[in-house]
Amino acid sequence: MGRTVRDGLRLTAEQGQFVELAREFAAGEIRPRGRAVDEADVESPLDVWDKASALGLTSFMLPEKYGGGGVTDLLTQVLVQQELCHGDIGIGNLLTSNGFFGAPIEHLGTPEQQERFLSPLGTERPPLTAVAVTEPGSGSDAASIQTSARRSGDEYVLNGQKTWISNAPYAEMFVIFATVDPSLRSRGVTAFVVPRSAPGLTVGPPIRKMGQRAIVNAEVFLDDVRVPVEDRLGDEGQGFAGLMRTFDASRILIGAATTGLARAALDFATAYAAGRVQFGVPIIQHQAVAFRLADMATRVDTSHMLTVRAATLYDQGHAVAQESAMAKLVGSENAMWCTHAAVQTLGGYGYSRDYPVERWMRDAKLEEIEEGTSDIQRLVISRGLGAR
């Protein structure tokens, strides 16, 4: 299991059971598959998805009334996410991706929509899903999306192109963000649930990536896709607020995922340093290596504590845009630092694909980019300073 963070949290018996389930699954099912999934490049490990689904690990974050595990507090979700991603961050993020799809439906959807769209996620064989925001010309500036949604009677007609859409090659349902009027920017953004079978919706070939290959990304094309009004989430123009609320939670979960990854790098580097002998002693006894490991441990704890704080404040109902951005910023940059430090500790072996740390370093880089780059997180934090 390696090192765990001593944070003083007192978990309920139910919380502890979910965390232990995730820890055991990560060690037994996720970690052993990491290398093969990476080398497969553009294939998600659907067999691992099925095993996790059977245990409730793909739907634990959904309310019980929709067939989920009822773990609706973000703090427990954070602890589970960290354990899954300690096994492998790409596979861990894949297994919890339906929570990202469900969030805007929970924030914006009517009770009828929530029942209709969330219940399939709690079944024995749940579908994979996707959220489509990013476009070729719109990344961090989500208010500038150009995919259009034109009202036509009791339907909307969607036209546009999305890119870097996680799970797109496998997804059976999409939450697609479009605009009813680009000149309105954020006030025009509207969300829709669109089935993969909708005429005019097509998915491009998989995008080859540096890391986190367990989640396959692709472009999504919308050519006069007709969506019933009853599949619009919220009113026109409410999509951007729902997306930002989704990001408040998902960025905290990224903080948890990257903490799990950084902890994995620390565990592996520590074990290696304890067994690798140079100049007559294990290299962990050399100050340069020992201090590097000490810095890794400190960064792991820092990431964990920021993430736990943000999740706790979120659960208490506070506005957490700043805290969420801090958790993602620090978690992602610390994971990048720790995985690089692990490679350095292993030396030549760290550069070898026979050891996991080079893969983990490639995996870490994504988290400094997705759902708002590190620069965007600093922008969010700085803009909120005057409001404190």
TrEMBL record:
Keywords: FAD, Flavoprotein, Oxidoreductase. Pfam families: Acyl-CoA_dh_1, Acyl-CoA_dh_M, Acyl-CoA_dh_N. Gene3D superfamilies: Acyl-CoA dehydrogenase/oxidase, N-terminal domain, Butyryl-CoA Dehydrogenase, subunit A, domain 2, Butyryl-CoA Dehydrogenase, subunit A, domain 3. The keyword Ubl conjugation does not apply. InterPro entries: Acyl-CoA_DH_CS (IPR006089), Acyl-CoA_Oxase/DH_mid-dom (IPR006091), Acyl-CoA_Oxase/DH_mid-dom_sf (IPR046373), AcylCo_DH-like_C (IPR036250), AcylCo_DH/oxidase_C (IPR009075), AcylCoA_DH/ox_N (IPR013786), AcylCoA_DH/ox_N_sf (IPR037069), AcylCoA_DH/oxidase_NM_dom_sf (IPR009100). Residues 237-385 form the Acyl-CoA dehydrogenase/oxidase C-terminal domain. It comes from the Bacteria. Its cofactor is FAD. Residues 130-225 form the Acyl-CoA oxidase/dehydrogenase middle domain. Residues 12-122 form the Acyl-CoA dehydrogenase/oxidase N-terminal domain. PANTHER family: ACYL-COA DEHYDROGENASE, ISOVALERYL-COA DEHYDROGENASE, MITOCHONDRIAL-RELATED. Belongs to the acyl-CoA dehydrogenase family. This is Acyl-CoA dehydrogenase. It comes from Lentzea pudingi.
